[in-house]
Amino acid sequence: MPLVTPLSENHDAETKQLAEFFNETLGFCPNSVLTMQHRPAISQAFINLNKAVMANEGRVTSALKRMIAWVSSNATGCRYCQAHAIRAAERYGAEKEQLDNIWDYRIHPAFSEAERAALDFSLAASQIPNAVDENIKTRLYAYWNEGEIVEMLGVISLFGYLNRWNDSMATTIENGAVESGEQYLGKHGWEKGKHK
């Protein structure tokens, strides 16, 4: 049972209009956004931040951004965000072999060294204490420029917010996200947990 009940998609007209972004990303408006509507300024600011963070201005693809989000969410243990990130990665064209083997990105041949550097950055930046060090920096700069690194950290930071929000709220997970979670993550023990 969620800590706070999500409101109707029609509760706030501006949030509803902004939330159309999620129809492409996930195929539905997330319950997290519907809960944020209790203070519409938060839901509106969050959606605008999400849109800015997920905009592609360099070589960091939409699929890679969602895999970065998955690694970050996996590090923090948020099952809601793990399922959302893997679903969005799928919808944005991540290779099936990558989706099936995201747990093994460090060694699986479906991932390039540039992707590994980005995903290791996500893991290091999502840990407490933070584990970003000179080795992570050196590997990032071997493949990515400063603007692209900013994009990546934008995703990691956005999901830091979402991981805390959804785990604390015990946000009810939507059916589409459950399907993707079970398909790609279930073999490694993913389940809804508190997000029922």
Automatic annotation (TrEMBL):
Residue intervals of the Carboxymuconolactone decarboxylase-like domain: 40-120
Segments passing through the bilayer: none
GO molecular function: peroxiredoxin activity
Highest taxon of the lineage: Bacteria
Record Pfam families: CMD
PANTHER family: CARBOXYMUCONOLACTONE DECARBOXYLASE-LIKE DOMAIN-CONTAINING PROTEIN (PTHR35446:SF2), SI:CH211-175M2.5 (PTHR35446)
The protein's name: Carboxymuconolactone decarboxylase family protein
Taxonomic classification: Bacteria, Pseudomonadati, Bacteroidota, Flavobacteriia, Flavobacteriales
